[in-house]
Specification:
two-stranded antiparallel sheet, mainly alpha, elongated, about 270 residues, single chain, 10 helices
């Protein structure tokens, strides 16, 4: 065979290289069971996912309970927002920050954290009642799961009913075309929850409106003074912000607002 090496043509036998290549391919062929039709050797699996038959109905019940628990945990943030005092508190604190005009101070983490701990403080009697009358008896196997859920819902419903307006309840009863309940115990939970939420929103905006009034007066006075002095190029917020902060600090605003919001839940 002719081989070109550095521009020169030489003759070099390749019998030895062809023999070595043939032997290599032969051993590769023998080492591959798929090539000559043999069954592949099964390798041990690290993860095994399958659907096996349940040995007893109890195993199915445990699986369903775990599935329901994971579902409830995924809905926990929504339950915390909709069934507690968190909605009113976080809206009031957010409107307070807007009224002060401090942009991102206090930051969202502080507002949400304070709202969360105030919610825990307000809801502690309710959760204590749920724990003593529903959770602990259920863990001690004194009551069934259905009885525990029924007992646990009573203090939560009582808290929501105290904060819900009859007008909002009547709205959802009318929309749902439900028979007029004889008392508050006959009100379905599916009607009570949205009525409670819109009642909380209305109350929160009412408190926010009262918070806006003194700070709005300061903004109007500062804007009028700057306009009368011909300083139209100076943003009024730059002058009014120190006065609003001074008024808020001298009046001990955090004490008054937090105390008023907590006491508003009765």
């Amino acid at each position: 065979m002719l081989v070109a090496v550095w521009g020169k043509t030489v003759t070099k036998p390749l019998k030895l290289s062809l023999t070595v290549s043939g032997i290599t391919l032969f051993f590769v062929f023998l080492s591959c069971p798929v090539c000559w039709g043999a069954g592949a050797v099964p390798s041990p699996s690290f993860i095994n996912i399958g659907l096996d038959k349940a040995g007893s109905p109890g195993e199915v019940a445990v699986v369903l309970q775990i599935f329901l628990l994971l579902t409830v945990l995924s809905l926990a943030p929504a339950l915390l927002i909709l069934l507690t005092s968190f909605t009113r508190i976080v809206i009031v604190l957010s409107l307070l920050r807007k009224a002060l005009g401090t942009m991102q101070s206090p930051p969202n983490q502080i507002i949400i954290g304070l709202s969360l701990f105030l919610t825990i403080f307000i809801m502690t009697p309710v959760w204590k009642d749920v724990n003593e009358n529903a959770v602990q008896p259920f863990l001690e196997k004194k009551i069934t799961q259905e009885q525990a859920l029924e007992v646990a819902s009573k203090p939560i419903r009582a808290f929501m009913i105290r904060q819900t307006r009859e007008k909002d309840l009547a709205l959802f009863v009318d929309i749902g075309k439900i028979k007029r309940p004889k008392n508050m115990d006959d009100v379905p939970t599916t009607v009570l929850i949205p009525a409670f939420v819109i009642s909380e929103l209305k109350t929160a905006f009412q408190i926010g409106m009262l918070l806006y009034v003194p700070f709005l007066v300061i903004d109007m006075v500062v804007a009028s003074v700057l306009l009368s002095m011909g300083m139209m190029m100076l943003p009024p917020i730059m002058v009014s912000l120190p006065f609003k902060l001074m008024l808020f600090v001298l009046a001990d605003g955090w004490y008054l607002i937090v105390g008023s919001v907590v006491k508003s839940f009765g």
